[in-house]
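Good morning C.,

I know you're traveling, so I'll keep this short. The sequence:
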Amino acid sequence: MSERIIDLRSDTVTLPTGAMYQAMLSAPLGDDVYGDDPTVNRLEEVGAKMVGKEAGLFVPSGTMGNLLGVMANTNPGEQAVLDSQSHIYYYEAGGLSRIAGLLAWPVATEKGWPAPEVLAAADRGENIHFPRISLLCLENTHNRAGGAVISEEQTKASCDHAHARGWRVHLDGARLFHAAVALGLDIARLTAPVDTVMFCLSKGLAAPVGSLLAGDGETIAKARRYRKLLGGGMRQAGILAAAGLVALEEMTERLAADHLLARQLAGLLAALPGAKAPPPETNIVMFHLPEGIDEKDYLTMLAKSGLLCNSFGPGVLRFVTHYHLSQADIEEAAAICSSLLESFGCETSTKGKDNNFNLKPGQKGSPTV
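The tokens, ready to paste straight into the viewer:
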């Protein structure tokens, strides 16, 4: 194992900033289960206001926030429509069914967006044989679609279709600030049509722990009760909420730098013969290995060389850029990938290719390769 580690597994691996540590040391505290932790209360107010909602709820994780959003919007025995590759369906341990008591109705989408025509095809209407659809779940950005962004117009179209049929809409916005920065929009424009939204403070924003669920007051009051049911009451949680406040105040706009690093990495990886790395929309790079290379073997060799990432299916690796990475790290990561491909017998010389690192943070497009 290399002594130096470049960690591209996720943007959850970041450590708190100096300002976060200071805020955690000095945060006024109370018992949040009784509602008297002033720092938690402020975080919930600030976060809800940012996404244009009436109330917020601080929770330990995005998975809990999504589950609470689902539970507060539905009744057991109903049905939720969601993308078949969505985080709620794919990665959250079946909580949708086991705890919320819903039947998942997964649909195939283009880059994670359930367009109105897709939703119309999934709707079997009122029939005593079928569970009633009561919820649509969206995800922005979409993890398994490579950090793909759902636009303001797409969000509204899906929500309008759902609301016209009496469905509620929950948005898994774990990386929603990435979407807002990529689109150059105020985040509230992406959340305006949805009933509830969850967004993470520990993905990209560098807070150590926590997410927020936001919505109307009545729905969040229900979610607060369910949070207690699930064991999510954290008492003097202001220690964590203080870091979350710094994340919202200081870390959202800098996400453009992460997007730039992701485009640079994708450009370098795409230049490797036989490999593919589509230009990313945000901070997630999907690296498709040359045919015949086992991603598990390759992943093990990367780790031994000091580069960490995740497998994302046969022949595909996922790299996620974040606050702790520099351009030098990105160049070294690409060099490690190139060197290991050579060990598999791939010719990886990129001599004469122009890897353009002159894009400015926030500029759209990918490096020229």
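Safe travels,
E.
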